[in-house]
Structure formats: C-alpha cells, structure tokens
Design a protein that fits this description.
The protein is mainly α. The chain has two helices and no strands. α1 packs across α2.
C-alpha cells in the first residue's frame, strides 16, 4: 500500500519536474527570439524607414529629378543608411559601455 503511494508520488514529482523544465526551455527560447528581433530586426527596419522618409522628402523638395535623381536617391539612401547604421552602432556601444561602468 505504502509502496504504491510512494510510487504514485514519485511519478507526480517526475511529471512536475519535466513540465517545469519544458516551460523553462520554452521561455528561454521565446526570450531569445524576442531579443534577437529587438536587437537586429527593429533597428534595421527603423533605418530603412528613416532612409525612405528622407528620400521622399528630398523628392518632394524637388532636389532629385528624373533618372539622375533616381541614381542620386539611391546613392543618398546608401549614405543615409550607412550614417544611420553607424549611429545605431554608436548608441549600442555607448549603452553597452554604460552598462559595464555600472557593474
């Protein structure tokens, strides 16, 4: 009788431990995916969006015309993209340095 109860209790403990491990693994995977999206994807999307807005404003201001303007826009977009990317990298490095200094 006691052996059966002990065995049932052990089975419950094993099931609970397995469920906890699975939940922890799922949470870690989800947090990792969210962190990758926040650190990699969102800045890239923000840079592309900012570059597109700047190019549209240049077109609206009649600073870019025709085929030459399109080539100029592409060149400008690469320059804007590069400078914004450097800005994001600089901000990231500064925040990382500040975090190190706080420790």
């Amino acid at each position: 009788m006691y052996v059966a109860q002990a065995r049932a209790a052990a089975e419950v403990v094993v099931i609970v431990v397995v469920v906890v491990i699975v939940v922890v693994v799922v949470v870690v995977v989800v947090v990792t995916v969210v962190a990758v999206v926040v650190v990699v994807v969102l800045p890239a999307v923000a840079v592309e969006l900012a570059a597109a807005i700047m190019i549209k404003r240049l077109h609206d201001a009649k600073l870019l015309h025709g085929i030459n303007g399109s080539l100029q826009a592409m060149t400008t977009q690469h320059v804007i993209y590069g400078s914004l990317q450097q800005l994001f990298v600089k901000c990231y490095n500064n925040s990382r340095d500040l975090a190190r200094q706080r420790r």
